[in-house]
């Protein structure tokens, strides 16, 4: 289970928590050459994966675009797409993908030797495709003080003050009707379209500045354009570019932009699901380029690492040497709506994962063994534990991860919430309770979680992917036996 957490960032590879000793037993400063060399090597090794992640996240902006970007990775790696509306045909050794609502996706790798008798089970890595954001309402047009505004609502528990004073792009899905056919299209506008301005300093007293709290309804409605600029733009453009709507629910300028981008002026715009997003691209930052600065790190960092790990563990020469005769079914799943409780057809608090597992077994003629196989399954850096079961980890599953991490040379930390601080939750606890599957919650630390822009470590992403890939290679028999 891989949601990221908000603890302070610690680069375990570059900084040791205790002072190291030299050959004489004296304490060495942290800036000693061996530690510098270790940190530099790790950064160099982690750089290619970090750059691929940045390329990935710069194509996203909505759960639909996240799933589309994951699907591109899987398709390029030879995964075959299955459709929920048709029967599934699967073979041992096969690689498959399936989506629901265009916002949830699973990758499935069937072990060559998967059978009930082989003690095989499911090994699932679960993440989520959504992030806190501002979403356009069904009636998204507002006009105030001579400006055309977008009307938005807050999705999830964001740090909403961080959305002020930055250019906001937009990504999502539109639904149209053309020639009596309903058509769905994904759209992404990476350039800044919206802006939520702060109040100028001379219009506030020091007391007002200190006491200011964001009112989500009054303070977060973004400016799109001035009314006069829109009039001038209408006069100089072809009004036929705007798709037909029964009523003006989108700002006129935005409706024209949608129609022009789609190239479908005759289509009737029925509805949309648009997320606003930080228009500044993700990037590697810091004087030593040790940080990734990006929107949507929660949870796309874990999502990217999970699917990359599954691809690496199921293809290539390295896999052929280490994974021959695999007995498990490997899955990576990115659910939607985690930020708002997961209670939806594409969320983790639904029958989705259970249904997909059963369909896999039916296609492999093992459906009658579902519950027996489930008992052998595992949902599987920072190990997150909570005595009140907000996280799904327990002593057995945490020990399993520690053994795997030790064999993979991946440093780990433990994360426990203070007694006087509220604890977050993940999809892990609900999946574990629903399926009765052993689960551990893990992730990488980050700064400013749920901000419009978050930060994590370059090497942390590499370590997470390395950890997730390692058990996929059946390289930890001792750990696996300990879990049976």
Automatic annotation (TrEMBL):
InterPro entries listed in its UniProt record: Peptidase_M18, Peptidase_M18_dom2
GO biological process: proteolysis
Highest taxon of the lineage: Eukaryota
Reactions catalysed according to its record: Release of an N-terminal aspartate or glutamate from a peptide, with a preference for aspartate
GO cellular component: cytoplasm
EC number per UniProt: 3.4.11.21
Gene Ontology molecular functions: aminopeptidase activity; metallopeptidase activity; zinc ion binding
Names of the cofactor(s): Zn(2+)
Keywords: Aminopeptidase, Hydrolase, Metal-binding, Metalloprotease, Protease, Zinc
Any Pfam family: Peptidase_M18
TM region positions: none
UniProt-listed Gene3D superfamilies: Aminopeptidase i, Domain 2, Zn peptidases
Keyword Protease: yes
UniProt similarity note: Belongs to the peptidase M18 family.
The protein's name: aspartyl aminopeptidase
Species in which this protein is naturally found: Cyclospora cayetanensis
């Amino acid at each position: 289970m891989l949601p990221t957490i908000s603890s302070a960032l610690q680069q375990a590879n570059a900084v040791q928590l205790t002072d190291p000793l030299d050959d004489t037993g004296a304490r060495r400063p942290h800036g000693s050459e061996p530690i510098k060399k270790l940190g530099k090597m790790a950064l160099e090794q982690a750089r290619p994966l970090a750059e691929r992640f940045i390329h990935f996240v710069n194509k996203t902006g909505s759960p639909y675009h996240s799933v589309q970007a994951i699907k591109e990775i899987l398709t390029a790696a030879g995964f075959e797409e299955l459709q929920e509306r048709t029967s599934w045909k699967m073979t041992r050794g096969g690689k498959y993908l399936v989506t629901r609502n265009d916002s949830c996706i699973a990758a499935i790798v069937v072990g060559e030797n998967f059978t009930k008798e082989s003690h095989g089970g499911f090994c699932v890595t679960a993440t989520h495709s959504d992030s806190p954001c501002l979403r356009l309402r069904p009636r998204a047009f507002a006009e105030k003080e001579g400006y055309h505004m977008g009307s938005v609502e807050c999705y999830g528990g964001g740090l909403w003050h961080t959305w002020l004073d930055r250019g906001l792009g937009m990504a999502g899905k539109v639904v149209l009707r053309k020639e009596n056919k309903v058509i769905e299209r994904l759209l992404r506008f990476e350039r800044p379209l919206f802006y939520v301005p702060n109040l100028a300093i001379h219009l506030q007293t020091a007391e007002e500045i200190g006491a200011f709290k964001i009112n989500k309804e009054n303070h977060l409605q973004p400016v799109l354009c001035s009314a006069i600029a829109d009039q001038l733009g209408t006069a100089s453009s072809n009004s036929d570019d705007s798709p037909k709507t029964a009523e003006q629910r989108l700002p006129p300028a935005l409706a024209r932009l949608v129609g022009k981008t789609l190239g479908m002026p005759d289509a009737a715009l029925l509805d949309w699901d648009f997320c606003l997003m930080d228009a500044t691209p993700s990037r590697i930052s810091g004087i030593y380029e040790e940080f990734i600065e990006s929107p949507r790190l929660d949870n796309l960092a874990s999502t990217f690492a999970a699917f990359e790990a599954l691809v690496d563990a199921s293809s290539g020469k390295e896999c052929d040497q280490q994974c021959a005769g695999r007995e498990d079914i490997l899955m990576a799943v990115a659910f939607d709506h985690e930020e708002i409780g997961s209670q939806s057809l594409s969320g983790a608090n639904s029958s989705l994962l259970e249904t997909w597992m059963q369909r896999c077994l039916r296609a492999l003629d093992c459906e009658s063994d579902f519950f027996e196989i489930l008992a052998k399954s595992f949902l599987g850096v920072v190990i997150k534990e909570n005595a009140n079961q907000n996280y799904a980890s327990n002593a057995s599953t945490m020990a399993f991860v520690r053994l795997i991490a030790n064999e993979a040379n991946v440093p780990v930390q433990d994360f426990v919430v203070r007694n006087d601080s509220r604890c977050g939750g993940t999809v892990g606890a609900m999946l574990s309770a629903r399926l009765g599957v052993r689960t551990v919650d893990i992730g990488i630390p980050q700064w400013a979680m749920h901000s419009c822009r978050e930060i994590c470590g370059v090497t942390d992403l590499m370590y997470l992917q390395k950890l997730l890939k390692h058990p996929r290679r059946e390289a930890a028999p001792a750990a696996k036996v300990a879990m049976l």
